What does this fold into?
Amino acid sequence: MAMSRGAKTLALTSTGIALVSLDVTILNVAFGSLLREFGTDTRRELTWLFSGYNIAYAATLLTAGRLADAYGRKKAFVRGLVIFAIGSALCGIAQNPEMLIAARVIQAIGGAILSPASLALVLPEFPVERRSAAIGIWGAVGGLSAALGPVIGGALIDIANWRWVFFVNVPVCLIAAAIGVRFLRESLDETARKHVDVPGALLAVLSVGLLALAIVQSDEWGWATPTTIGILSAAAIATAAFVVSCKRSTTPVLDLRLLKLPFVTASTVAGLVFSAGFFAMIFVNTQWLQAVWGYGVLRSGWATVPGPFMAALVAAPAGRAAQRFGHGKVIGLGCFIFATSMACMNIFMVKEPSFWTHFFPYNIISGFGIGLSISTFSSAATAYLPHTRFAMGSALSNTSRQVGAALGLAIVGSLLTAAAKSKDVAHGVQQGWTYVSITIFLAGIVMIAMFRKPTAEQLATAAS
It folds into this structure.
């Protein structure tokens, strides 16, 4: 049976999301290979491959959706694919960490441009009664790609080298872009404002980037030095300026009035904290497998797969449970399960390879907790919003999680850099597990304590 136009559109746009999601996790297994090529003294710089990507993605995502609505979603999707391909090619030929980090930022910008456009292209191709299923498939592709990132990355590094982790993106992006030009229907919102809050977007990058810089360099500079204090002060000033810019702009990067709604505030704060722990967990787990247990890149990739697959299995039932029992309770429970599994890993893990008795069980348990939490955050942020505020609420939620990811990776990167200096990576990973368990537990507390269904008055105030 021939595929419908909607199915073809979904397949094509999902390709872009798959690549973007893949590149969020695929580099975790390549970190050891990068250290061997560029030198162990570049460990601190190389953590910016993760933080820089997330900061650039978050900042671009703030304006990308609005520009796609105003100028055309097809154009945005195709251009995003081309930019992502250029960034991937530059990553593959990078000769030093600085060039690699800059290329990763280009990748992130391309990914942020194509992501909101891809979903906007899918929805008009399906009748209303089938859109939820289409969104579910679109989201599942991203989740599955992220889960397979370490395995695919490990296989490519085993067969060739780390550069092919990036090179394989190029032909896929260009082929998808060429098909998209011929096949996709253009759509845009005639009422969308074309003005972009450029100062707000720049201040967002500056505030998060400066904070991440202070964290990454903390083991070298120290927290009480004039340099660190100066950078932290500059980050605070940039954050304050960002808030002022958002309040004054007629088309703000983020509509901060949404934070008057208790469920938006809870989802935003908890989502940031959760992501700061979740992405850190992925990184430190891989470091334990490779640096402590001596696993190769492919074996370490396969070792991390059970958790994400468990999360994927739990995600759909978690959404139904959230509708019945409340988002705050379901996410809170998931966070407590996740945090407990990380605490147990920290207490009971042994330095001799013991995958089935020590790593696998806690990987499955954490996957169950993650499944209850991570996909439910998206719906929690927009659960009670009116249709006209859905896009901005979703942008606020996604941005907070990307910022959390950048800061969390900066924190554990700093911990591991300090541990590497003392030749005790295991201690650094254990510190990372402690950090993750505390962070995820706090995210659960925030959701249970703060998540509330809004009153009609609160909705009216936030929309005014």
